[in-house]
UniProtKB/TrEMBL annotation:
This is Uncharacterized protein. PROSITE patterns: GNAT. InterPro entries: Acyl_CoA_acyltransferase, GNAT_dom. GO terms for molecular function: acyltransferase activity, transferring groups other than amino-acyl groups. It holds the Pfam family Acetyltransf_1. It comes from the Bacteria.
C-alpha cells in the first residue's frame, strides 16, 4: 500500500448515491458463484484481494457484487470485507475499463451500505491517482491523518 494513500469518506445521504443504469448487469454474488468470483480476482488482481473478498462472500447475505457480460464476470466490488463500513476491494477487467462499470459497482455497494444502515462509508487506502475518480463518482473526500487499517498487514 502506497505511503501517500489515504482513506476517503463518503456521505451516503447525498443525492449522488443512487443506483445507475449500466450496460452490463450488476448483481449480488450468489454463493454457488463464489469460486468463479475468487478466480476472476486472482487472475486479474491479487491474492490479497482474494482474501479480502472471501470475507464479503462468505456471509449469509454476501456483500460482494459482480458486473456480468452475458455469463462472463467482468468486474467486482465488495464492502464490509476488510472492516465494517469499508468499501473495497473493487476491480474491473482491463478490457472493459472506461465504460462506467467501476462507478456502477461502487454506487451499487454504497446504496447497499445505506440500506444496511450506514450513514457514511470509508474507502480504504486510496492511492492519489484514484482520488479524482472517487470524488467525482461518489463525492468522497480524503480523510487527513487517516490511520489506514492496512498498516496492520504482515
Amino acid at each position: 500500500m502506497a505511503s501517500d494513500s489515504k482513506d476517503m469518506l463518503v456521505d451516503l445521504y447525498q443525492p449522488i448515491i443512487k443506483e445507475l443504469n449500466s450496460t452490463y448487469e450488476i448483481k449480488r454474488v450468489l454463493s454457488p458463484n463464489s469460486d468463479k468470483v475468487l478466480k476472476f480476482i486472482e487472475d486479474n488482481f491479487s491474492l490479497g484481494w482474494v482474501s479480502e473478498a472471501k470475507a464479503g462472500l462468505y456471509k449469509p447475505n454476501p456483500t460482494c457484487f459482480i458486473a456480468v457480460d452475458q455469463d462472463k464476470i467482468i468486474g467486482f466490488a465488495c464492502y464490509d470485507a476488510t472492516a465494517k463500513d469499508y468499501f473495497g476491494p473493487t476491480g474491473v477487467d482491463e478490457s472493459y475499463r472506461g465504460q462506467g462499470i467501476g462507478k456502477a459497482l461502487l454506487l451499487k455497494c454504497l446504496v447497499s451500505m445505506k440500506h444496511d444502515g450506514y450513514g457514511y462509508a470509508i474507502i480504504g487506502g486510496v492511492e492519489p491517482k484514484n482520488w479524482v475518480f472517487y470524488e467525482k463518482a461518489s463525492g468522497a473526500t480524503p480523510i487527513d491523518n487517516s490511520k489506514k487499517i492496512y498498516t496492520r498487514m504482515v
